[in-house]
Structures are given as C-alpha cells and as structure tokens.
C-alpha cells in the first residue's frame, strides 16, 4: 500500500484509488474529484480528532463574528477621526473592503485545496517548491502572534466600552490603564472557561452572533437615521482631518486605513475550523468570501450613519470614546445606553470566536511539533473533543500582550497593529507561494479559475503595502506613552522563531507531518 501523497508543486491532497479511502471519492463532472470530509483529512495525513459540529452557516458565522463590523468600527472610530477624518473613514472603508475581498478570495481558493485546522501554515508548507519547513514555520508563528493580537485587542476594546457604559450613568467614574487591563483579564478568563466547559454553547452563541450583529447594525443605523433632528450633509463624507501631529496629510490618511484593516482581520477563522466543518472543501471558502462581502455592506452602512451623525467634531474627537459620544450626543443617554449594550455584546461575541479560532491554530501547529511543549498543546479533551490546553495558552498570551496598557496611551493601536500585521503577513505567504506556482497549483472544488493568479497578485501587493504602514509611528512626538510597540512585539517573535529555527527546529521540523497513509490514519480516528 502506497502512503498518501500531497503532490509536489502545491497540488492538493490525492488519494490512491485502490485504497478503501480512495473508493469513497465522489467524481465531479469537470473531471476533478470532490473528497468527503474525512477522506480529505485522511489524504492530508491526519486522523480525525475533532467533532464536525459546524455546517456552512456556522463556518460563515465564525468569520463574520470575528470580523465584526460593530466591534471594529466602534473601537477604532476615534482613531480614524484624527487620521483622515470622514473622508478616510468612508472612502477608506470602501477601498480597503475591495482589497480585502481580493485577499479573502485568494485565501478561499487555498482553503478549498487544504481544509485543515493548520490552515495558513499547512498550506505554506505544501505550496512551497523548496524550504517547505521554513515557509511553514514562519507562517505559523506570524499567524500565532496575529491571532493572539486579535484576541487581546477585542477583549481590551470590550473592557474600554464596558467602562464607557459605566461612565454614561456614573460620570465620576474614570477609566485607567490598570482598570482596563484588569477587566480585560476577567473577559479573557470567562471566554477561556466557556471554550473549556461549554463548547456546544459556544457553537450556539457563534450562530446567534450573526443575528445579533445583523440586528445590531440595523438598530444602530436606523436609530441614527431616524431619531436625531439634524445630520451632517452628504458632502461631509469628503471632509479631511489631520490631527495626528504629522505634517503630511497623505501619511495621516494612510494611517487612517488602520480602522478598516483592523476590522477585517480574523476571516481565517473559517479556515481554522475546517476540520470541524461539514463539506469543508466548499463550505470553508464560501464562509470566508461570504463573511467579507456581508461585512463590507453592513460596515459601510454603519460607517456612514456614524459619520453623518457627528455633532461638534472637536468635542467628539477629544472624547474618551468618540463613537459613544456620537450616540449620546445624537440620541440621548437612554437610547445610547441601549445601543452601547449591543456594541459590548458584539465585542464579547467577537472575542469568544477569536479565542475559538486562536486555539485551533495552536492545536494544529503543536500537532506538527512546532511549539514548545507541543504534546501538551495539541491534547484534546476526551469530554468535549476540543483542544482545551490550547485555549488556555491563547488566553495567557493574549493577556500578556495587553500588559503595556498599564502605562501606554497607544496600547490599543499597538495591539491592533500586531494583529493586522501578523495576520496579513500570515495570509500573504501562502498566497505568494500559490502565485509562484501559477498553473501548477491544483485547486479544490471551489476555485477562481483563470482569475486565480491576477487576484493573488493584487492580494500580495496590498498585504505588502499595508504591513509596512502599520508598523510605522502612529502619533508624534514619540514618547514612552505614545510609542507604537507593535514592531517590537513582531520583531521579538520573528527573532525568537528565527533563532529557534536555525538552532534546532530546522533539523526536526520539515513542515506539516503525515501520520500515515489514508487507510492508516483512518484507523486512528478518535471519533
């Protein structure tokens, strides 16, 4: 019996026809073979350890929840008011949404070919012509730090908005760095406990979050359109503001794109949930693209509603939480408080889904022996069939990333930058490697056809430009409290990964491992 092969030059998983697994393949009319879920996983060399409790809608829901336009726009809106103002908030949303659709489509094509929890780092290892272990190694570590940054930033934002809600009714309360970090710790603890003991409830909450977000956007936009007596004119969307301290308006405008870019992180969540998704070769790519497309439309409506409801611009921009100030100024404390609860709920849903995805990436990376103490982190709970230890590692690392918030006024922007740059570099590497293969890439059932290469080119260019931008200074003058520590965090991770790679890892890690032939790994299934 021949062992399963992944093929060279980025070819998707293939299964020998004479094996028991191979006979379960379903042939498509176009000549390609659509593998069922377990067959696909076995062809990639992995036994089934996780329960497939996610259907197509659930897979879409996790990325839609992590993108979370309410959480992203409300938490970063004030930053955009200073860096470009309404022009960049609105036009930037449209422009970045289009660029992210290119990134998502390119990723979706890869996800259809390699639907595993390892997602990006697994695909990088299989798409590389040479040095597969190195490509996989660095993609995995960038994905790890980006995922941790997303989990941390969402919890940190929720902590800030919870305090804004308290201030709404108790004006004497003042949020501080230590109080925000402490509340963040509590949120991360509760989300980790939920992912440990109530996994079925987590899946149900992620499904419900889609309707919470859809209803929340409708309620907020409707309230801002119908209740205020006055609105800014349509021409206000072209108003430009530069309060960053930098003299270059172009630089300020580019910094303002961080608002939209931060919102559009985490759609690899669908990819990481592939091993828990039914019909993953089709449901996963559709989940990625669908989540981005729906978020683009919902986010544009929300952004326009907020921008055209701004009253006194200076007072709003200087408020502790500008987006909350817009609600209270336009709608009054009562309605604003209700809508703020919707926002906080969205952030908590977002953080819960973030941690779920984060743990799956850790589980898969450890399964291939790429993390310290790998055996511990890819352990699966016999009760819930979930990677419980990986959940707690995600929570602990996320909290560590928020510690500078004890003294730094720009901690949130820095954490966001860690999230955006780490994630998008991890997105970009497999797309770049797929681009190098051109026609040698063997797609899955969901693919872009002749548009695959052009779409990948645009995606790589955007990722390169945005990654450079978001490690640059965010404000001036540079001080201990305003310094953007994102490049330090990213360089530290890359440096450790590099030293570790050349010291020991390159001799023992050659990329994603195979546990045997398809029939052999099928016999190892735990479920």
Automatic annotation (TrEMBL):
The keyword Membrane applies. It is a multi-pass membrane protein. Pfam families: AA_permease_2 (PF13520). Coiled coil: none annotated. It is found in: Membrane. GO terms for molecular function: transmembrane transporter activity. Residues 1-32 are annotated as: Disordered. PANTHER family: AMINO-ACID PERMEASE BAT1, OS04G0435100 PROTEIN. This is Amino acid permease.
